[in-house]
């Protein structure tokens, strides 16, 4: 028998992708999958892509999760803390929500509202020292989707002193699954098709998370909703310090990373090449006119931005090879 895991919020987009990854993972057995309004439904009725998965969604209740070795929480913001508090100390937890990502309680309250639940180990293994910290933790806060894409592009440049941490501008486009599955009128197909829409301009909740994870002091971010189901393409623009080329810094930082690929010179990341994989594709240049650093980062928001990243963290927490059950190759076209 394998390691028993449970998925809470399994009827959502992130939860569905977790179910798919767990089904293909050689060491993990699904012990329970829970939902809220859709409890009682067969998984395959809620997630047609999982046809053949013989499982019924149960109600979200700590007692139903008691014998899992590790629980993935894929709940809306603010819903994780109460449930996590009911799970025994011996149960490992990876929270895909934002409840435990931030160290700064004031920043949490400003961007999310409500009381700050606390701070868990941040779930981005590629940050220096973080892989070891995750492996030693029983509670891990998975990254936000934009935060994963932007932090992987920016953190090595700030750490190496080649990007000014006080002058960073981000424009990032996301597919609609990033917003979750619950019906939202602005996500109606008839309104998003053929349209690009900026939202949360200058006030996105991932800004404090990216600052905390990347070392940036000041960051202006414009998110854009793109008419595609999955994927994030982030353009990170920063004032350079010194003459080191940003591509050389990124290449050195990620030389041994299985999931982060700095593309060959001249090749630029695009979302389609990361879909279905746990990868982040990066490319960097110095703008010909301004000399500013430009890094482009692509991920699958449900892969490296959510469920893939969560499985990567779980592998570390469980003492498994980090890449187990995760794909480094996408499914394009
Ligand atoms: N989508 C993405 O790309 C990413 C998502 N995340 C985070 O992952 C988490 C889940 O996101 P996502 O899958 O997109 O969201 P969805 O809206 O698609 O799914 C939400 C899930 O939570 C359940 N749920 C809703 N309210 C409650 C409640 N009060 N108590 C218990 N369960 C509840 C829903 O159950 P039911 O359907 O039965 O009502 C559903 O299973 C969020 O915190 C999100 O920010 C993080 C990174 C990327
Ligand atoms: C397209 C879209 O609406 N995306 C969401 C991304 C949220 C997410 O995935 O991250 P969290 O876990 O921090 O919520 C947004 O911009 O708020």
UniProtKB/TrEMBL annotation:
EC numbers on record: 1.2.1.38
Domain of life, source organism: Bacteria
GO MF: N-acetyl-gamma-glutamyl-phosphate reductase activity; NAD binding; NADP+ binding
Domain Semialdehyde dehydrogenase NAD-binding: 4-135
Catalytic activity from the UniProt record: N-acetyl-L-glutamate 5-semialdehyde + phosphate + NADP(+) = N-acetyl-L-glutamyl 5-phosphate + NADPH + H(+)
Keyword NADP: yes
Main location: cytoplasm
Signal peptide: none
GO cellular component terms, A-Z: cytoplasm
Keywords, ordered alphabetically: Amino-acid biosynthesis, Arginine biosynthesis, Cytoplasm, NADP, Oxidoreductase
Gene Ontology biological-process annotations: L-arginine biosynthetic process
Localization in the cell: Cytoplasm
Active site: 145
Pathway noted in the entry: Amino-acid biosynthesis; L-arginine biosynthesis; N(2)-acetyl-L-ornithine from L-glutamate: step 3/4
Family statement: Belongs to the NAGSA dehydrogenase family. Type 1 subfamily.
Function: Catalyzes the NADPH-dependent reduction of N-acetyl-5-glutamyl phosphate to yield N-acetyl-L-glutamate 5-semialdehyde.
Name of the protein: N-acetyl-gamma-glutamyl-phosphate reductase
UniProt organism field: Couchioplanes caeruleus subsp. caeruleus
